[in-house]
Write a structure and sequence with these properties.
Radius of gyration: 17 Å
Bound molecules: zinc ion
CATH class: Alpha Beta
CATH topology: TIM Barrel
Order of helices and strands: EHEHEHHEHEHEHEHHEEEHH
Strand order of the largest sheet: 1-2-3-4-5-6-7-8
Number of strands: 10
Distance between the termini: 13 Å
Strand content: 15-25%
Shape: globular
Number of helices: 11
Structural class: alpha/beta
Largest sheet: 8 strands, parallel
Number of domains: 1
């Protein structure tokens, strides 16, 4: 079976259909990541489906849309609902959206706070780093726990820091649509690899769905000349251990 370790299922309307479609493609576990208070609430609700698990956290881009009171309330909610969370995520920093130092600081502060909560509660973290890979890893170096770098698109140096630290990398449909990203992704050893879709993010105008992880695995199999079964088994084993599935 395959696991989609990073998607946003709270954004889909017909989950029954989506789940049966996924299961028919042998994608039997879907880990839905949160971005704000509302999405945390929705994600907790949909864990009633046995195929769905969730991560709770505040996304760096969403943090920019919140005032301090909203951030505090969201963090409180997060702390009170940790029993639903398989990991804290998605958290991180995104300097594509932070326009000035104050906004960057705001993201960093909430990122650190969520890392602290994860460490205190022995939960792994799912990290989003965009245009800020180096800074994100610098902050992570203080964190004691398991790390999954989602859709990580750093340079050679930041990739090797992540590997040195034995972080996991989740790779999605971008390997099919973006040659540069594919090249980097192929450097990730199977032992550090997981599969994701970030659904419903669009690729070439089409909304991704969790069962696309199979297509991602097929691409890896083709390019690396490794049997599909081996990719399936190793990435699923990594996901099961990381998220305690
Ligand atoms: Zn995401």
């Amino acid at each position: 079976m395959f696991v989609d370790v990073h998607c946003h299922l709270e954004m889909f309307s017909d989950l029954n259909k989506l789940i049966s479609e996924s299961v028919s493609q042998d994608t039997r576990k879907l880990i839905s990541s949160s971005v704000d208070l509302n999405s945390m609430k929705k994600n907790i609700k949909i864990t009633k489906f046995p195929e769905i698990e969730c991560c709770l956290g505040l996304h760096p881009s969403n943090i920019l849309l919140m005032n301090q009171k909203e951030i505090d309330l969201s963090i409180e909610f997060l702390k009170e609902n940790l029993s639903f969370a398989k990991a804290i995520g998605e958290i991180g920093i995104d300097f594509k959206h932070a326009e000035n130092d104050a906004q960057k600081e705001k993201q960093i502060k909430v990122y650190k706070k969520q890392l602290f909560i994860a460490e205190e509660n022995s939960l792994p973290v799912v990290v989003h780093s965009r245009f800020a890979e180096k800074k994100s890893l610098e902050i992570l170096s203080e964190f004691n726990g398991k790390v999954l770098l989602h859709w990580f698109d750093g340079n050679k140096q930041t990739f090797s820091i992540g590997l040195e630290k034995n972080y996991f990398f989740s790779v999605g449909p971008a390997v099919i649509y973006n040659k540069d990203y594919l090249k980097k992704a192929l450097e990730i050893p199977l032992e550090n690899l997981m599969l994701e879709t970030d659904s419903p993010v669009e690729f070439n105008g089409i909304k991704a769905k969790p069962f696309w992880v199979k297509k991602v695995a097929e691409k890896f199999s083709e390019e690396k000349n490794i049997p599909l079964k081996q990719i399936e088994e190793t990435t699923t084993k990594n996901a099961k251990e990381f998220f305690s599935l």
